[in-house]
């Protein structure tokens, strides 16, 4: 009986590892997206919001080193595990913010691909204008893992349906 459950579990795991590629009712291809890292203080070379597609271990290591080279205290942050043969990472950086209360979060674990454009939904969180917030510069980011697929660019869509960022792939 244990063997049967092991086979069932393996088949289910293979299904999810393949990115759960299928189509939605609008004819778009859909893939599963996973948030592998997020923080409110992410170093960046730019103070503006931007996205970056990472499709190799060398590029991820360079990104990780640049973002965390000046981290003080605590233990080092482990690099996420990614099979770059079948997956890539989307680094989304909100840009520099003047207070606390800003954040990014995966809104929908489904990425839709239509006309070779992948759409990823995130919650682009800003504090209310009357909110009490910390007076500190923040720079929120999120790192999303998604299967490589039939797309040449990725759009980051916020909770209101606005395209916040667009990243063309190599």
Question: Can you offer a commentary on this structure?
Answer:
This protein is α+β, with helices and mostly antiparallel strands and 170 residues long. It has one domain (20-168). It has helices spanning 2-17, 57-68, and strands at residues 22-23, 29-32, 34-39, 50-54, 87-93, 103-106, 110-114, 117-125, 141-147, 153-157, 163-168. The N and C termini lie far apart (48 Å). The model is unreliable at 2-21 (pLDDT under 50).
Spell out the blueprint of helices and strands.
Blueprint: H1 2-17, E1 22-23, E2 29-32, E3 34-39, E4 50-54, H2 57-68, E5 87-93, E6 103-106, E7 110-114, E8 117-125, E9 141-147, E10 153-157, E11 163-168
Parallel strand pairs: 8-10
Antiparallel strand pairs: 1-2, 2-7, 3-9, 4-5, 5-9, 6-8, 7-8, 10-11
Summarize the entry for a quick read.
This protein is α+β, with helices and mostly antiparallel strands. The chain has helices spanning 2-17, 57-68, and strands at 22-23, 29-32, 34-39, 50-54, 87-93, 103-106, 110-114, 117-125, 141-147, 153-157, 163-168.
Quaternary structure classification: single chain
Count of the separate structural domains: 1
Radius of gyration: 18 Å
- End-to-end separation in angstroms reads 48 Å
The main β sheet shows up as: 7 strands, mixed
Tell me the series of helices and strands, N- to C-terminal: HEEEEHEEEEEEE
